[in-house]
C-alpha cells in the first residue's frame, strides 16, 4: 500500500491516546487523522474523517468497546485493532473482539513505557490490508462425525492476522476424537490462554496451551504459548517441546518452526493447514511437510482476512488444496481419517 494509512485513535485516557499517537506518528506510512475519548465521539469522527484503521480501547464511558465494535462491524465494517489492558479480563474481551471481527489486538503498555507499543505500527499497517465483512449471525458448525476414525496422523495448523475467527470455525467442527492437533497462532502471550479456553468451550476436543513434554493424544489440541516456539519431537510417542530460541522467519512463536518439526517427526503421517495471516511465516515449513509426504491445505483468498501466509505457501508449491474456510475442517479431518467417505 503506497498511500499513507489514516488512523483514528479511540481511548478514554488522554495520556494513553498521546502514547498511541506518538507511537504511530513515528512511522512515516501512518497518519493519525483524529482521536476520540468514547464511542460517541468515535462514531462522529468515523463519519467525518473516514479512517482506514481504528485503534479501539475496550473499557470506555457511554458504551464499552466491545458493544461499539459489534455495531461498527454490523453497520460500517472497518479494520479495527483492539488496545487492551494486560489483564485476564482484558485478554478474554480481546478474544471476543477478534471473534466479532477486530483484525488484531495488542496489549496496552504501562504508562511511560514503550515496550508494549513495539508491534503497534506493524499491526495497524497489516490491518489496513485486511478484508473486513459485515458481521452476520454465525452458522452452526457441522455436527462432528460420531463415526470418525483418526488414522494416527498429526494435524498442524498455522495462523496469524484473522486467525482467531478462522481457528474457531475449524476447531469447533472437530469431533471429540480428532487427531492430535498442534497450532501456532501469532498472538501476544497474555491472550493465548484466553484463546485456548475459548476454543475449548466451543468445540468437542480438549484445547489447552501446550506445556513442555505434553504427549500428543487423540482428542487434544495444543496451542503454542505466545512467547515460545512449539515443536513436535519424539519417535513412536510424539510430544510438545517449547523453545526459547530466537525468532524464526521473524516470529516467536513461528509457524515455520512448528511445521518443520512436524515434517521431520511425522512426515507423511501428518496434515498441514495454513490459515489467514500477514507475511510468509509457515510457507517454508509447509513445503517441508509437503515434501515429506504430508497432505497440505491452504485457506483461499476470498475467505482470508489477510491472504499473505497462504499466498506465500501456494506460490512456492507447498499447498495441495486451496479451500474456503468453510471446507477446511472437513477436508483436514478427511486427510487424517481412516473413515470411508469422511470428506
UniProtKB/TrEMBL annotation:
Protein EC: 3.1.1.61, 3.5.1.44
Residues of the active site: 160, 186, 281
Short name of one Pfam family: Response_reg
Post-translational modification: Phosphorylated by CheA. Phosphorylation of the N-terminal regulatory domain activates the methylesterase activity.
GO biological process, one term: chemotaxis
4-aspartylphosphate sites (modified residues): 57
Signal peptide segment: none
Keywords: Chemotaxis, Cytoplasm, Hydrolase, Phosphoprotein
Domain Response regulatory: 6-123
Alphabetical list of InterPro entries matching this protein: CheB-like, CheB_C, CheY-like_superfamily, Sig_transdc_resp-reg_Me-estase, Sig_transdc_resp-reg_receiver
Molecular functions (GO terms): phosphorelay response regulator activity; protein-glutamate methylesterase activity; protein-glutamine glutaminase activity
Subcellular localization(s) per the UniProt record: Cytoplasm
CheB-type methylesterase domain mapped to chain residues: 148-339
Domain of life assignment: Bacteria
Gene3D superfamilies (alphabetical): 3.40.50.2300, Methylesterase CheB, C-terminal domain
Chief place where the protein resides: cytoplasm
GO cellular component terms, semicolon-separated: cytoplasm
Biological role stated in the UniProt entry: Involved in chemotaxis. Part of a chemotaxis signal transduction system that modulates chemotaxis in response to various stimuli. Catalyzes the demethylation of specific methylglutamate residues introduced into the chemoreceptors (methyl-accepting chemotaxis proteins or MCP) by CheR. Also mediates the irreversible deamidation of specific glutamine residues to glutamic acid.
Entry's free-text remark on domains: Contains a C-terminal catalytic domain, and an N-terminal region which modulates catalytic activity.
UniProt name for this protein: Protein-glutamate methylesterase/protein-glutamine glutaminase
Name of the gene: cheB
